């Protein structure tokens, strides 16, 4: 994004004004408004959480009785009401850490994972989808029955394959591009409701 476009970006300004770490906070808010992904008192796992915009929203939605954990390879500044784990989702120890922190299976897994973009679309797309499969592997071990999930998907050659893979696991599933997403963005969000463990 060019600097001049960033300055004009309404959601970036709004995020600054309202204390969110990224404009992506509004994507989660918009999708939640339509699909009620996170409930009060829910235990929420945020995979690929940096810089923490989704984690902030998850803490607000889950409330005082909820519990939120964010996982990322990057350092993420502390967020009140959330536990941050600096780790790679491909590391087998993540699942143990998650279950140890929550003490039981979670209600929701959210995943806004994005690779370091190289500019080569087919490489970026396949890397992002591959990360989603790694996140789904964790989800299968930590998400309780009837739980919900939300995954960012770079639209492309393998996105339908990932959608079909998730469709077998949930009662209801939908692909949607939030209004908050930039027009030129190829990102979609896979909303998964009612995990059938």
TrEMBL record:
InterPro entries: RNA_methyltr_RlmE, RNA_MeTrfase_FtsJ_dom, rRNA-MeTfrase_E, SAM-dependent_MTases_sf. The keyword Glycoprotein does not apply. It is an enzyme of class 2 (transferase). S-adenosyl-L-methionine binds at residues 52, 54, 72, 88, 112. It is found in: Cytoplasm. The active site is at 152 (proton acceptor). Its EC number is 2.1.1.166. It holds the Pfam family FtsJ. Belongs to the class I-like SAM-binding methyltransferase superfamily. RNA methyltransferase RlmE family. This is Ribosomal RNA large subunit methyltransferase E.
């Amino acid at each position: 994004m060019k600097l001049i476009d960033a300055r004009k970006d309404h959601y970036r300004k709004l995020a600054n004004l309202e204390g969110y770490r990224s404009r992506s906070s509004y994507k989660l808010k918009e999708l939640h408004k339509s699909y009620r992904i996170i409930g009060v008192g829910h235990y929420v796992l945020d995979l690929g959480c940096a810089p923490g915009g989704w984690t902030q929203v998850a803490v607000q939605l889950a409330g005082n009785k909820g519990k939120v954990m964010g996982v990322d390879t990057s350092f993420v500044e502390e967020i009140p009401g959330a536990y941050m784990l600096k780790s790679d989702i491909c590391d087998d120890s993540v699942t143990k850490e998650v279950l140890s922190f929550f003490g039981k299976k979670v209600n929701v897994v959210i995943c806004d994972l994005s690779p370091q973009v190289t500019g080569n679309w087919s490489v970026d797309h396949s890397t992002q989808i591959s990360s989603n499969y790694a996140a789904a592997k964790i989800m299968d071990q930590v998400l309780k029955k009837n739980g919900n999930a939300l995954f960012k998907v770079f639209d492309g050659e393998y996105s339908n394959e990932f959608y079909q893979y998730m469709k077998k696991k949930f009662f209801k599933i939908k692909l949607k591009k939030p209004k908050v997403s930039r027009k030129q963005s190829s990102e979609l969000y896979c909303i998964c409701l009612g995990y059938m463990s």
